[in-house]
Every structure is written in structure tokens, then in C-alpha cells.
Design goal:
heterodimer, A: 337 residues, alpha/beta, D-Maltodextrin-Binding Protein, domain 2, three-stranded parallel sheet, 14 strands, 39% helix, B: 384 residues, MetI-like fold, 8 strands, 66% helix, globular
């Protein structure tokens, strides 16, 4: 099935129509946004018991759909594993990839995709069973490591162990679930992935208290949504929907008070963001209220964060780097002007 | 209609030309379109990536591999791992298949039923599920490294794999190899001589027992004479894991097990149909000659049955090789898992890598069927 998907994606690359610039038109015509998401990562992208997709990455898809199609629910979620994701995007199987994907130079250039601003600043970490008695990643010489194939973590791992002159054995699996199962069964000593993924995975384990996340963070993993090269308008839309989420939080606009802000706010940037003044939405080819709908239907970045991974969720992740720039984090948006 | 079109022959040729031109035009369109799309999306193309550093590690490799090796090396490792698991899969599935196929026709009710149950069970479950099943069985039932099953301090079994002593060859070990070769040569000669003698005098010679004795005693003698030039490295628990010795990983074992058991059912059926296709008179004639049931099978029935079964067994071997690509599900590092999987994802060059992978499988399959077809032609009844 997976092989079939990969082959069909290549076939699609071969037969796709020559006109490819107009992703916006295609999405509007289809009436639905095809969004590539993770097959299952709690807090980021996971289908709940009713089959509704939830998570931080999922909420980005919803925000984009709210801006473009006027309805946050008009999203077709395409669950992808790490190996399939870029081919799916390159070939046009999906319109946007929102799947905890790290922005790197190679991916941004040679893979033919563009990253539309960071949704989550992450870093790679390690999780081990407490019974192993390991306190630091530097004690992992000779360990067997479970890891997901086709990720930046796979490369970071090799770099980290090499630079510390340690040996390791990597066992790679296709999906996060397989990695988790093998780790739980004791096939490996260590599970490594982005720190957010570690906390998410820990909630899935039968006995989370038996495992501990080591303190080292060994890499920078800016997780960002991505679109194809060659369609600047769509790239702009993807970028500014993300920026709208951040700016809304900065200005204190939430899904609850957005109507009030639209009616009464005297802040010129808020007025521009919500379409009361200026041509912000028109500049990217959408109607006046595109960002207003995003905030109204999905909420601002802070709401999305708290709803999916924040302190009241099983993941209990602190804002950390993902706090606004003026509150101690590095979350930042260019101005709406 | 012009006169020449009324000619059926010319019309036939014309249709074929149209079909070929259409097909070539279609291929051309696809190639053009692909090139255009790739260029427009700014995706990197070409085969330079083969010489770029891979940057990731591979669990098991028959040749040296480090994260600094190239993607070409990844391809080589993947290919070798595919060939290794396919080779052993073919060996084991043939052995199991032969036994089960013969059992299936046994007059003994219990044996017959066991074989039938085996075939019907494993033939009708998708092989991917079987691979996942055996993998989970291996992981779930075996203890952790620190609580390994310990067999005489030489073999250790845990959920990281089977750890066995590795033999190290020192100077003079060539004598043992030479002794083995000598034993084999002697066996061939004795067989020849025994057959000649049997044809001449009717007397039989215990070739099998003599051969076995030669094969054990000659190398043993050489081993002692050369001053015991072979030593073993035993696996030892070291930190997290066993080190030293030879390791079979759970991924390899689960894949090998699943492929062998699955393919064996088809081979058993091929053998059974081959045996059933041998005319009854052959067996009756053998009985009347006074051959024991085992001798009947060995000298009369199987040689004819195998001839009939070979073509469908070839198909099963080819299927096994192709099915080994399902290892991606459990992380055994064969061609599809690491080259068409990890390398593809790290470089993003799907077209090139999938093309190389497909061509490789095509080539392996063609070579295997070439060898087996040659064998088939050789085994055929020569009509004089």
C-alpha cells in the first residue's frame, strides 16, 4: 500500500498537467484543501475516537482552509509517514504539508519545496527506560536506538554520536507507532525524536512513568508547514496565515473577542489584520476577511498551542522557545503593513 | 477505400505501426512532462547523489558501513541484504516445502492432515501480516539483553537477536579448507566407483556413510595437524548489549521465518502436484522391483516429480525475492527499506532511486530465472 502510494506519486509527477502554478485556483475549484499530516502523533496530528483530526499541525491546515475556503472544516487530511511526505507534496497529491517537518537547507532547496514559517521550535532528545539507570545522553555509548526512517533525527543521531566518539546501532521503522512498539518491547535501549514527539509518544506508552526523557537537546528542529516550489502566491498565503496566527496572539485577539476587536479596535495593525482597513488579504489573492475567519474559526497561536500541547493537555509542554518574542520566546511575525 | 488498404496483410501491418507510434508518443509525452514538472519545481535531478555522504546508520551490513559512507554504499548494502535473506529464504522454503509436499501425500492420516493444515493456514494469510506477526512474537516472547537465555555460555538469545560465537581463521586454516575439498572430491570419486561396481556386480556400497565419515574426519585431522588454527570469539554482555561473535537480528530472523514458511506452502503444493502427476504405474513398477517406499520416492518418483514442479517452483523463488521488500515494515535493512526508503527521503530524488531499484529487482529476477531455466532445460527428459 505504501509502495503503491509512492509509485503513484511518482506517476503523478510524470503525468500531472503542465499548468501547475495555480494551487489557489485548484483548491478553490476542489472546494477542499488537501493537507498532508502525521499518521499519528498526539498533540500534533491524531484522529480522535470519532475520527476527527486534532493537533497543532492539524489546526494549521484548518487555519489555511478558513482563509482560503472560508470554512476551517473543508480539509481533506492525508496521513503520511516520514518517507512519503515529500514525494506526496512534490507530486501534487497534497496542497500543503503540515506534518512536524524540520526546515533544513537541503529540503528547502534540492527537494523543491518552500517552508512557510515555523509553527513549533523543537529540538531532538532521547527517552530511555528508568531501569537503564542512564542520566545523560553521553552515557549512551553502545546503545541500540529506535528511530523513524527518513527524518532529520536519523542524521542528527549519527552526527551526535560521531562527534562524541560513541558507537550506536540504529533500528529504523516507517511509522512512529512502529518505533514506539519496538521501544516498548525492549528492542532498543533508546527512543529518539523531537522533544515534543518524545512527550507525545510517552503518553502512548502503557506505563509512562517507567520512562524518562534525558536532559540533552542535540539539535535545532524548526517544524514548519511546506508548499511546492514554483507557486509564489500559494507560498505567500501559507506564510501569512501562519503570521496572522502569531500576530493575533501578540495583539491579544482570540477567537472569543475577535468580533469585538473588529468592531471597536483602534490599533491600525489590528484593523489591517482583520480587514477593516487596507488590502492585506487582497495582496495574497483572497477576500477582505480571510485572516478574520482564521482567528474566528481556529483561534490565535496561543490558543492553538494550549489546546493541543499546553499545560492542560496530557503533553504538558511549556511555551519555552515557542513563547512570543516579547515574552521571552522567539516566536515572531513580520508586521501586517 | 484505396486499393492497398483492402489487402488484409497490409492493413494488419498498418495497425501495428499505428499502435507502436502511439505507444512511443505516449512514452515521449510522459518523459517530457516529467522533465518539465521537475524543472519547474526546482527539484534536483541526476545521479550525483550516489556519491554524496549518506549520514545515517544501518543496523546490519555484511560490508563495512558508517554514516560517512555514500548513498552508493547504501545501495550495495541494501542489495546484499536482499540477496542474503532471499538466498536463505530459498534454501529453507525449499527444504520445508519438499517435506510438507511429501507429507501431504502420506498415507498416514495424522501426517497428511498436519501438512494440509499447515498449507491452508500459511498460504491464506497475507505475507506482510505474517512478517509483522513473527516479528512481534520474537520481540514479545524473548527476554531482554540482561536476562538472556544462556546456552552453555556460547549462544545467547534475547530480544536483540541470536548471538553466536564467531570463528576466527588463523594461519594454517587453509589446510582445513583443503581437507574439505579433498573430502568432497573423494566422495564424488567413490560415488562414481560405487555406481560402476553396482552396475557390474550388483553389489551396493554404503556411499552415504563413507562420505559422512570422510567429511568429518579429514577436516578434523587437518585441524589437529595444523595446530588448531581456528578459534572462536564468544559474545559477551558489555554495557547495553552483547558484543563480539555473530549476531542474527530479530528483524532478519522474523523476515526469514515468515518468507520461508509462506513460500514453502506454495512449493509444497507444486511438489505435491508434481508427485501426483507421476503415472501410478511408475510406483507400481518400483514396488514390483522390490524398492522400499523411501527408495521409490528417492529414485523413481521425486526425479520425475521435480521435473514437473520446477517451472512453478521458479515462480515461487522469484516471488520470495520480491516479497523480501516487505521488510520495510519491520526495519530489516534491505534494498527497499534503506535505499528506496531512507536514501530516497534524505535526497528527495524519487524518480532516480525508484528507477534504480526497479531495474535492480528486474535484473535479479531475470538472472535467477535464467539460471533456473537453464537448470530446467538440463533436467528435462531427454528424448532420443
Amino acid at each position: 500500500m505504501k509502495k503503491f502510494l509512492k509509485l503513484s506519486a511518482v506517476a503523478a509527477l510524470a503525468t500531472a498537467t503542465l499548468a501547475m502554478a495555480g494551487t489557489l485556483d485548484d483548491v478553490k475549484k476542489a472546494g477542499v484543501l488537501k493537507c498532508g499530516v502525521n499518521t499519528g502523533l498526539p498533540g500534533f496530528s491524531e484522529a480522535d475516537s470519532k475520527g476527527t483530526w486534532r493537533g497543532l499541525d492539524v489546526d494549521y491546515c484548518r487555519a489555511l482552509a478558513a482563509a482560503v475556503l472560508g470554512d476551517a472544516s473543508k480539509v481533506k487530511y492525508v496521513p503520511l509517514n516520514a518517507k512519503e511526505r515529500f514525494t506526496a507534496l512534490q507530486s501534487g497529491e497534497i496542497d500543503v504539508l503540515s506534518r512536524n517537518t524540520t526546515n533544513t537547507e537541503t529540503r528547502d532547496t534540492a527537494l523543491g519545496i518552500n517552508f512557510a514559517g515555523v509553527m513549533y521550535y523543537d529540538g531532538q532528545g532521547f527517552m530511555v527506560p528508568k531501569s537503564l539507570g542512564v542520566k545523560s545522553a553521553l552515557e549512551l555509548d553502545g546503545a541500540t536506538v529506535c528511530i523513524q526512517a527518513g527524518t532529520t533525527t536519523e542524521l542528527n543521531l549519527a552526527d551526535y554520536f560521531r562527534s562524541h566518539k560513541m558507537k550506536f546501532k540504529a533500528i529504523t521503522f516507517d511509522t512512529n507507532d512502529q518505533v514506539t512498539k519496538a521501544f516498548e518491547a525492549g528492542r532498543c535501549d533508546v527512543l529518539t525524536t523531537d522533544a515534543s514527539g518524545l512527550y507525545a509518544t510517552r503518553t502512548k506508552l502503557a506505563n509512562p512513568d517507567k520512562y524518562v526523557v534525558l536532559p540533552e537537546i542535540i539539535s535545532k528542529e524548526p517544524l514548519a508547514p511546506a508548499v511546492r516550489h514554483g507557486d509564489d502566491q500559494w507560498f505567500d498565503i501559507a506564510k501569512w496565515v501562519r503570521n496572522a496566527l502569531v500576530t493575533a496572539e501578540e495583539k491579544g485577539i482570540t477567537s472569543a473577542n475577535v468580533d469585538e476587536a473588529k468592531a471597536k479596535s483602534t490599533d491600525p495593525e489590528v484593523k489591517r489584520l482583520l480587514g477593516v482597513e487596507g488590502d492585506m488579504c487582497k495582496n495574497i489573492g483572497l477576500d477582505k476577511e480571510c485572516f478574520y475567519r482564521v482567528i474566528k474559526q481556529v483561534g490565535n497561536y496561543g490558543e492553538i498551542f494550549e489546546r493541543n500541547v499546553g499545560k492542560n493537555t496530557p503533553l504538558k509542554i511549556k511555551r519555552g522557545l515557542n513563547q512570543l518574542w516579547n515574552k521571552g520566546g522567539i516566536l515572531y511575525s513580520p508586521p501586517f503593513r | 477505400m484505396p486499393a492497398f488498404l483492402r489487402d488484409e496483410k497490409i492493413r494488419g501491418i498498418l495497425y501495428q505501426i499505428i499502435a507502436i507510434v502511439g505507444f512511443v508518443a505516449f512514452l515521449f509525452y510522459i518523459a517530457q512532462n516529467t522533465a518539465h514538472n521537475i524543472e519547474q519545481r526546482g527539484i534536483k535531478t541526476g545521479f550525483d547523489f550516489l556519491h554524496a555522504t549518506a549520514g545515517f546508520d544501518i543496523t546490519e551490513s555484511p560490508i563495512p558501513f558508517t554514516p560517512q559512507s555514500t548513498h552508493l554504499r547504501v545501495f550495495e548494502v541494501g542489495l546484499l541484504n536482499t540477496l542474503i535473506v532471499s538466498f536463505w529464504g530459498i534454501v529453507f522454503s525449499s527444504l520445508i516445502g519438499l517435506v510438507i509436499g511429501v507429507w501431504r501425500l502420506s498415507p498416514n492420516w495424522l501426517i497428511n492432515r498436519i501438512a494440509a493444515a499447515y498449507i491452508e493456514t500459511f498460504r491464506n494469510i497475507p505475507v506482510l501480516l505474517q512478517i509483522l506477526f513473527w516479528y512481534n512474537v520474537v520481540l514479545a516472547t524473548l527476554p531482554s539483553a540482561r536476562h538472556s537465555i544462556n546456552l552453555f555460555d556460547t549462544i545467547f538469545i534475547n530480544n536483540r537477536g541470536f548471538f553466536m560465537p564467531k570463528l576466527i581463521l588463523h594461519d594454517g586454516s587453509w589446510m582445513i579448507g583443503a581437507a574439505i575439498l579433498a573430502a568432497i572430491a573423494a566422495i564424488v570419486w567413490i560415488r562414481h566407483w560405487a555406481r560402476k561396481r553396482q552396475e557390474r556386480t550388483g553389489e551396493q556400497f554404503p556411499v552415504f556413510l563413507t562420505g559422512l565419515a570422510l567429511l568429518v574426519l579429514l577436516p578434523l585431522l587437518a585441524y589437529l595437524l595444523a595446530g588448531r588454527p581456528i578459534t572462536a570469539v564468544y559474545p559477551e554482555l558489555h554495557g547495553f548489549n552483547f558484543r563480539g561473535g555473530k549476531t542474527f537480528t530479530p528483524e532478519f530472523l522474523a523476515l526469514l521465518f515468515a518468507l520461508s514458511i509462506y513460500t514453502a506452502t506454495f512449493i509444497a503444493e507444486a511438489i505435491r502436484s508434481g508427485i501426483e502427476a507421476v503415472p501410478k504405474g511408475q510406483k507400481e513398477a518400483a514396488t514390483s522391483l522390490g524398492l522400499s517406499p523411501l527408495q521409490q520416492l528417492r529414485f523413481v518418483v521425486l526425479p520425475q516429480a521435480v521435473r514437473i514442479a520446477i517451472p512453478s517452483i521458479i515462480n515461487q523463488y522469484l516471488n520470495l525475492i520480491k516479497n523480501s521488500s516487505l521488510a520495510a515494515a519491520i526495519g530489516y535493512p534491505e534494498l527497499v527499506t534503506i535505499f528506496a526508503g531512507t536514501s530516497l527521503n534524505q535526497t528527495g530524488q524519487a524518480l532516480e532511486i525508484l528507477l534504480i531499484t526497479m531495474l535492480t529487482y528486474l535484473l535479479i529476477s531475470l538472472i535467477v530465472s535464467l539460471i533456473l531455466n537453464w537448470f530446467n532445460a538440463k533436467m528435462k527428459i531427454k528424448e532420443r
